[in-house]
Structure formats: C-alpha cells, structure tokens
Amino acid sequence: MRVLFYVFILVIIAAIQAQLISVHVIFRHGARAPVLNVTSEEAKSYFYRGLGQLTDEGIEQAKLIGKVLKDRYVNSFVDSRMLPTQLLFRSSPVERCLMTIQTVGSTMFPNATPPVQTMPRPDDFLLVPKLDCSFQIDEWALFFNLTEEERDKARKNPWFVSDKALRKATSKSVTLQERSEENLPALILEKEAGLAVPAWFNEEAYKESLHVFYSALSVMASVGEYKSSKGIRIKAGLLLDKIFNDIQEKIRCHEKKSVNRISCDQKKLQIFSSHDLLILPLLEALGIREDVLGKELPPEFLSAIVIETMLVDNVPFVKIFYRGNPREITLRDVTGLVRNCPPKQPLCPADLFTSCCGEFITADPKSECYEEPSTQSPNEWAMTPISWILFGISIVLILILIVMSYLVIRYKNRSVVTIKKVCLEN
Questions:
Q1: Which of 124, 132, 276, 351 is catalytic?
Q2: Residue 84 and residue 105: Cα distance in Å, rounded?
Q3: Residue 232: which of 352, 361, 337 has the closest Cα?
Q4: Are 31 and 192 in contact, with CB atoms under 8 Å apart?
C-alpha cells in the first residue's frame, strides 16, 4: 500500500511541469582595494591594481559565481554557444564592476564572452545609485542637524555625510570609541585579505567595524535607521521597474506563444553588476534585508539576488534566491520571505511579486532626483497651446472690430456730408 502511495506522489510530481522562462541576476562586484587609501606599504603592494580596483581574490570570486551560474543555466536554459539575443549583460561603468561581469561571462561561456552593455556614470540611473539629489541633502540635514556650511559640503561631496555617520557610529561603540580617526574601511579590507593590521584591530574590533561601516553605508543607501522610501526609489526603483516589466512581458509572450508559436527567447537571462549601495536598497525594497544580512551588516562581495520566473502548468510563478558569501556554491531560497509573497511557500505567484513594491518603483528617477524648483507663482497662469489659440482668435476679432468701427464711422461721415450738400443745393 505504501509503495502505491509513493507511486501516486511521483505521478503527481511528474504531471506538474515547471518551465523556466526568465532569470534576473543582480550582484555586487568582487573583492576590491580600499577606495581612498591604504594603511601600510604591504597593503599598497597587495592592492597593486590601484585604489578601488578589483583584486586577484575578486577575480577568483567572479569565476566561482560564473561557474555556479553556468552549472545552473547554460545548456539547460540558454544555448552554450552564447547567443547574444538570449542574454543581457549590463554593468555599472565602474571598472571593478566591469571586470567582475566580464570574468563571470567568460567563465559561463568560455568560447565566446558575452558583450557587456554600460553607459556613462552620470547617465546611469539603473546601476549607479545617485547620491546628489537635493531631497537627500534635506533628509541628511535632518538626520545630522547639518549647518548651512555642512549642507554645502554635502552638496559638493555626499560622502561627507557618510563620514559623519561613520564617526557617529564609532562614538557609540565601546570597542572603537577612541578610534574615530582610524581608516576603518581600509583596515576591514586589509584584514580580510590576510594582511598585517595594528594589534588593536583584533577579531572583536573587526566585527564591530563591520557594524560601524554598515552605518556609513546605510545612510547613503537610505536603509535601516536612515530609511527613506524616496531614497530607495531613486537608487533601486528603475531596476525594480525593469525587472517587473520584463517578467510581465515574458509571461505575455508565452501566453501568445501557445497560440502563435512565436519565440520568447529574447533576453531571457539578464545579469547585472553593481555596488553595495544598490544591493542594500534592493534588499530593503523586497523586504528581505534583515533576513539575509542581519540587522546591521553590509552585503559581502559578490553577494547576489537571483529571480527566476517559471510556468507551472502554464501558471506563472517566481522564485527568489540569495547568495550571501563569495565562497558559496549554493543559492538560498528566500521566496517565502519576500514582501507580498505567501510565507513559507516554495513559489510566489508572479502577479503578487510584481506588485510587491509600488512605493519603491520609478520609471523616471532622474526627474525625481533633480527636481527643478518652479519659478511660477501659485496664481500665475501658464500659457497652453489652447490658450495661445484663443489669444490669437481674440486678436483677430479685435482687429475686425476696429476695421468695422472705422468703416461705420466713415460711412456715417459720408452720409452727413451728402445730406448737407443736398440741403445747400435746395
């Protein structure tokens, strides 16, 4: 009887056919050098590519996630010959992001590296989080009680605010209270690379530094105690909007495909290489930041969000995975934790997922970021095309009225002259 039961279960499972129709992968770049400076000659030698550049370890991390993605999707989902029409590889223009995604692509497709698309940093609202929006300066001024002089500094260099957050968090730390002048971000990277660091920067100080560093990131990412829906929307809203639209378009395509036999392979695997300042607000928007990172920890290098869209018996569902450690080869299923998705369920209905995050989505972050103050007073009337048409008609009518008045007056004058002439003749 038990054997029959298991056979029945297997028949049910076999009857349920899951067809993967699209995949979106968003990851942070691999391990890099400190951005501002290093603390020793040894560190300078180790980070030989320069400040902010990808390290050899970062390249190895990129190769590993490339292998993970290759094993999961190449051959089984996309053609191993690398067909550009099936793929979108998109990167922030920052070199460490470009190097990361290029390494991932060459690992996935050894015979032909996928083309990587990018755009200039000022114009990239998809993968380069903007920090110079006027509303953000206003929010930071409230968070830190900035003087007018400090507001000007923040406008010129937004990282001035990050430094204030770092110092504020350091002053609250028992372990690091006296270390506010130390280069903590560099020491974190140097210790992780196995380089010599000062004796005081022990394991306890290192772990505490991660929390302090998170505070500096969170204010720039608009998450945690500095959460701002508008700030999240500016940084991650366009990417969310694109992903949701892609999913909906792919579902519509497959609905038509069952009738018209069309191809739906266009850009079905999309991979994005970006920064921690995008990963943080993206996780916050999806409602899983604390679940996957902890309350006050930054994302690690090459942490990744993977979104799979599939049809199960022709019904669209989504699965969401997170990879938190650059050495991991497995993906953690976080579907049941995502905002709007049914808790503890292995699949999330696609319509629920794509409607999860309305307050964090935007199709035009540029206009929201760089809002131009209106020079028009509340009572000032703006001329519209219809207004100009009515104005023109009014001018024409006035001219006609003037001409007609002139003709009437002239006619009356001529009549008077004629009457007088007749009277004189008589």
A1: 276
A2: 12
A3: 361
A4: yes
Contact assessment for residue 213 and residue 298, using Cβ atoms and an 8 Å cutoff:
yes
Which domains does the chain show, CATH number per domain? 16-129+229-369 (3.40.50.1240), 134-226 (no CATH)
- CB count within 10 Å of CB 209 equals 24
Angle made by CA atoms 326, 68, 210, in degrees to the nearest 5: 15
Contact criterion met (CB below 8 Å) for 311 and 298 = no
Pairing of strands 87-91, 269-274: parallel
Q: Using one digit for the tens of pLDDT, what is the confidence trace for 107-139?
A: 999 999 999 999 999 999 999 999 999 999 999
Show the CA angle centred on residue 213, arms to residues 210 and 217, nearest 5°.
130
CA distance 359 to 169: 29
Query: Which pTM does this prediction carry?
Result: 0.83
The CA dihedral of 350, 352, 357, 358, to the nearest 10 degrees, is: 100
Place of tokens 């690091």: 176
Among 351, 345, 352, 293, which Cα is nearest to 324's? 293
Q: What is the dihedral of CA 337, 348, 327, 38, to 10 degrees?
A: -60
Long-range residue pairs from 46-52, CB within 8 A, at least 24 positions apart, any chain: 46/190, 46/193, 46/195, 52/94, 52/95, 52/96
**Direct distance between the N- and C-terminal alpha carbons of the chain, in angstroms, rounded to an integer:** 138
Catalytic residue among 24, 29, 254, 275, which?
29
Structure confidence by residue, pLDDT tens digits, 261-315: 788 999 999 999 999 999 999 999 999 999 999 989 999 999 999 999 999 999 9
Alpha carbon distance 102, 301 (integer Å): 16
Quote the distance between the C-alpha of residue 252 and its chain's center.
24
Among 285, 300, 167, residue whose Cα is nearest residue 231: 285
> Is 29 assigned a catalytic role?
yes
Residue 168: what residue type?
K
